[in-house]
Write a sequence for this structure.
């Protein structure tokens, strides 16, 4: 007893703790970007979370001007502002990964993915941002094969062909799907929401009908061993998504962007339907961090604040489902839990 009292007094006097702080439980961000700071507009630009003040198009003013005005004057008291330099953006983004013990599937231009990987080798899984009609031309396929062979490509995507109006089952993408299946490379494809009014912000090929997860179905049938996940969970076409998840048990989704851009009630309603339909083990966390590192905090909070999820379901979404999808080994999972 005396020794116990002495120990307690000693700890109180020295300010020491009985044990070191436990590591934070790890998170896998399946949708993390390394991009230029001006990729979303001239910095600094701010966003409200959830989105507020989305412009109503007026033919008297170009929609792009209205959008930039919104980003420069976000209509809320707590906007998330972008940094002003590429160096600051990388530092702030990697600091968020460190703060929340996140490992990010990182996509962007090849040189920036490489820079992020060199700066934080234990926190970056290398992907590649791909889009446009040339994405599956022979030179692109050869580049992807070479990157994979050299150990510099673990995930294909984000694949953003929706912005060019190219459906997943377009024959031009067939070489890409075949390569992903051959190499057993996970591939993430944008099927769902982009910036409001993006058709009028330069992505003239973008079409709302391609929000449908059903657009992926013929690809899944042709390539049954393909490891694919749907970014943004096909919002808002929930019934189409549920039909695909039911019919194709190999498909996963990430909930990036919709977890911070949508009103929280709308995001929670959407996620709750997916989980209650029985597909909670195929939902993965993503932030879609572009130039707003602060959105990582808000997107994690949106998961943790979901009262309809159990603690086990939250851990599945934040880590376990992605670890299974990526086929992480026991050693790597243990390393993530000890960082």
């Amino acid at each position: 007893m005396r020794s116990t009292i002495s120990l307690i007094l000693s700890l109180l006097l020295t300010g020491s703790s009985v044990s070191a702080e436990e590591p934070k439980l790890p998170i896998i961000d399946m949708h993390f970007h390394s991009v230029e700071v001006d990729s979303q507009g001239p910095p600094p630009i701010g966003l409200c979370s959830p989105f507020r003040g989305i412009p109503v198009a007026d033919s008297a003013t170009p929609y792009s001007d209205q959008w930039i005005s919104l980003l420069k004057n976000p209509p809320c008291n707590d906007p998330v502002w972008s940094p002003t330099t590429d160096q600051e953006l990388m530092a702030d983004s990697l600091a968020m990964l460190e703060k929340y013990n996140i490992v990010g599937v990182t996509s962007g231009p090849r040189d920036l993915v490489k820079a992020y990987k060199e700066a934080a080798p234990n926190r970056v899984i290398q992907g590649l941002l791909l889009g446009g009609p040339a994405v599956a031309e022979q030179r692109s396929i050869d580049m992807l094969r070479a990157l994979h062979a050299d150990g510099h490509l673990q995930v294909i995507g984000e694949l953003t062909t929706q912005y060019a109006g190219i459906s997943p089952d377009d024959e031009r993408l067939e070489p890409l799907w075949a390569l992903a299946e051959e190499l057993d490379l996970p591939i993430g494809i944008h099927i769902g929401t982009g910036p409001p009014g993006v058709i009028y912000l330069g992505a003239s090929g973008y079409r709302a009908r391609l929000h449908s997860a059903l657009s992926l179905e013929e690809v899944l049938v042709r390539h049954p061993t393909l490891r694919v996940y749907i970014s943004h969970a096909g919002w808002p076409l929930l019934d189409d998504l549920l039909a695909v998840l039911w019919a194709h048990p190999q498909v996963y989704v990430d909930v990036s962007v919709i977890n911070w851009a949508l009103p929280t009630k709308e995001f929670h309603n959407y996620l709750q339907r997916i989980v209650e339909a029985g597909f909670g083990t195929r939902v993965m966390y993503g932030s879609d961090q572009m130039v707003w590192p602060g959105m990582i905090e808000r997107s994690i909070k949106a998961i943790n604040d979901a009262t309809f999820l159990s603690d086990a379901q939250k851990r599945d979404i934040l880590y376990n489902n992605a670890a299974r999808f990526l086929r992480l080994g026991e050693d790597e999972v243990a390393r993530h839990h000890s960082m």
User: Anything to note?
Assistant: Residues 1-20 have pLDDT under 50 and may be disordered.
